[in-house]
Design a protein that fits this description.
CATH topology of the domain at 70-226 and 297-316 in chain A: MetI-like fold
Largest interface: A-B, 85 and 82 residues
Strand content of chain A: under 5%
Helix content of chain B: over 70%
Shape of chain B: globular
CATH superfamily of chain B: MetI-like
Largest sheet of chain A: 2 strands, antiparallel
Number of helices of chain B: 13
Strand content of chain B: under 5%
Structural class of chain A: mainly alpha
CATH architecture of the domain at 70-226 and 297-316 in chain A: Orthogonal Bundle
Helix content of chain A: 55-70%
Number of helices of chain A: 11
Oligomer: heterodimer
Distance between the termini of chain B: 56 Å
Shape of chain A: globular
Number of domains of chain B: 1
Radius of gyration of chain B: 24 Å
Number of strands of chain B: 2
């Protein structure tokens, strides 16, 4: 083949192609600029947290007016919050999803529910907090407590469960249901025996996301019962009663970074004297909020990765 | 052989279906309950003689603890919108660029990785963002000439980083919703990818992209912890009638942060307490309006 037969680019095509190349690079850089700074910032947090990060930091109680020791009470409080809010948000959310996907007809009322789900997800977290304060703390008389805060979180995170349940249910082919109905199986039995077993992993991804949201939220719990000033004795088993105030990781981080100042003098265990903090102790105390941030971030990202991995597994192992 | 289902089973099924129905309407109930409860706590002040909504919205004098108290939230509202608008100015170009890159320009593998990264970024809790603003971002902002580093700019950068993944993923969905036949038709006419994006996809996904920006705006206005920690929380008006018109390095107060920081210190049931609930009603109304607008914008697309 000689050269004259080949297509040669005109200057117009060339300029078009150069522009295309540049646009491509620009978009790539823009995308990287979104992710890279955040990754750098997180590495910085981890770097600053290194002096305190250890397993003991998670399992130890705060000591020396919180200038030393760990964050176990806060970790436990977050576990309480997540478990309690899950107990409410998961069943109600899943059933709401079932209703919307399996029972609801396409009418104005269903559209109203859809709008409500969208808006519930969009209500600012601090407004949820005000709702929790008005409804659970005061009206229901629960007081500022773990249970009030968990219920507030449950209302707030429910849209996550509803949306993912709906998605999971609508992925089950209609023919599965039709086959079941043709056998004379009732509607609910079909849902329980056919639809739910085939969508349970999809629903689980939503539930895991709920866990991650509930663990990270601060505003809804800060006026419904979270506190940072509980003290625990050495060797005491940490637990909360449902009607008690509690500590939580997210609030702990907020409190530590904005309100807390290291104590001037500390009781020396050996001599019983009040001594000023050593330089090393101050540095250690300053690393505690970074450590808390890293633990919180770790928990949230762990659960999110789990959810993503689950979804990926689902997509590659679909049975139909 | 028993062909009839037992009465107990029929009852059990009816019960379950009713429970499902009740859960189904729970979202509607909660949305109304949120409005009613928040409004209820604030209504005493709203209908009392010494308060007017006009004053709340326009007066610059916020002095709720003073006697007599004055409840002018204009500076707080301006603070909220200054942070939100600056944040959106930063976030929108980046997230639209990112969405276009992910949906049109990159390979399948990179796309997968980037989407996972973006999703993880969206999951970072707001209190961690606030902490980053307080400890890391403030160092850079201090170099620009601010004393504490806590400012409109700090809050806006943090909010931009926070909202970019959300705006990006909604925009990407909007671009994905443009039918492939549009793309094929354009490519078939010999245009480059960028020309296709610019001339075909962006006009085609216009409404979805607008909705993405609106939803991002709703998020940014309603965000609490990050602004509470990063904007410095002082009652200032960042807008100015003289040049430079806008003080990006000023500390401001926002609606959300005002509630979060003052709620813990006020007397339960007092006027200050009630005005904070009224601010909650205002916030609810703003985000409700923004979300509804976004929904209606997208809905128009679907009907067409």
């Amino acid at each position: 083949m000689n050269n004259s037969q080949k297509f040669t680019a005109t200057s117009f095509t060339r300029s078009k192609e150069t522009r295309e190349k540049w646009v491509r690079y620009l978009m790539f850089v823009v995308t990287l600029l979104m992710a890279l700074p955040v990754i750098l910032l997180i590495s910085y947090l981890v770097h600053k947290a290194l002096p305190v990060l250890s397993l003991e930091f998670i399992t130890d109680i705060p000591r020396n007016q919180m200038s030393a020791g760990g964050i176990w009470p806060a970790v436990l409080g977050t576990i309480y919050l997540v478990a309690l809010s899950l107990m409410v948000a998961a069943p109600v959310g899943v059933m709401a999803g079932v209703y919307l996907n399996e029972y609801a007809k396409d009418n104005w009322f269903t559209r109203l529910i859809n709008l409500a789900v969208i808006n519930l997800a969009g209500v600012p977290s601090i407004v949820h907090a005000l709702f929790g304060l008005g409804a659970f703390v005061l009206f229901a008389g629960l007081g500022e407590s773990v249970i009030a805060a968990s219920l507030t979180l449950a209302v707030m995170t429910m849209p996550v469960v509803i949306t993912s349940t709906r998605e999971a249910l609508s992925a089950v082919p209609m023919s599965f249901r039709e086959a079941s109905w043709n056998m004379g199986v009732s509607r609910w039995q079909t849902i329980r025996g056919v639809v739910l077993p085939n969508s349970v992993s999809g629903i689980l991804t939503g539930v895991i996301l709920e866990v991650s949201r509930a663990a990270g939220e601060t505003a809804p719990i800060m006026i419904t019962g979270a506190t940072a000033s509980l003290t625990f004795r050495q060797g005491e088993t940490v637990y909360y009663l449902l009607g008690e105030k509690f500590m939580a990781l997210s609030y702990h981080l907020y409190y530590f970074s904005t309100q807390w100042t290291p104590p001037r003098l500390l009781l020396d265990e050996g001599t019983g004297e009040m001594l000023p903090m050593t330089q090393a102790a101050i540095e250690h105390a300053e690393a505690i909020p970074y450590g808390t941030a890293v633990v919180l971030l770790g928990v949230v990202l762990l659960f999110n990765s789990l959810s993503i991995a689950f979804r990926y597994y689902l997509r590659t192992h679909r049975k139909w | 052989m028993q062909l009839q289902r037992s009465k107990w089973k029929a009852f059990y099924e009816g019960l379950i279906e009713w429970i499902i129905r009740i859960c189904g309407i729970s979202a509607v109930v909660f949305v109304f309950a949120i409005f009613i409860f928040v409004f209820w706590e604030g209504k005493g002040l709203l209908f009392s003689g010494n308060f007017s909504v006009w004053e709340l919205l326009t007066s610059e004098k916020w002095d709720p603890t003073h006697e007599p108290a004055s409840f002018g939230a204009a500076r707080i509202i301006l603070g909220t919108f200054s942070v939100a608008i600056l944040a959106m100015t930063i976030a929108v170009p980046f997230s639209l660029g990112g969405a276009i890159f992910i949906s049109e320009f990159c390979g399948a593998r990179l796309k997968e990785i980037l989407k996972v990264v973006i999703e993880l970024l969206a999951a970072i809790p707001s209190v961690v963002w606030g902490f980053i603003g307080l400890t890391v971002m403030s160092i850079f902002i201090r170099d620009l000439g601010s004393n504490t580093g806590l400012s409109v700019l700090n809050g806006a950068i943090i909010l931009a980083l926070m909202s970019m993944p959300i705006i990006l993923s909604i925009s990407e969905d909007a671009l994905k919703a443009v039918p492939d036949s549009y793309r094929e038709a354009a490519i078939g006419l010999g245009v480059t990818r960028w020309q296709m994006v610019y001339r075909v996809l962006l006009p085609g996904a216009k409404k979805g992209l607008l909705a993405a920006v609106l939803l991002g705006m709703g998020r940014v206005v309603g965000e609490t912890m990050a602004v509470l920690m990063a904007t410095g929380h002082a009652l200032n008006n960042p807008f100015d009638t003289n040049p430079p018109f806008f003080h990006a390095l000023m500390e401001v107060k926002t609606l959300t942060a005002t509630i979060a920081s003052e709620m813990g210190e006020v007397e339960r049931g007092g006027e200050h307490w009630q005005v904070l609930f009224l601010i909650g009603v205002l916030l609810f109304t703003i985000t409700f309006a923004v979300n509804m607008t976004a929904h209606l914008v997208v809905h128009g697309v679907k009907r067409k």
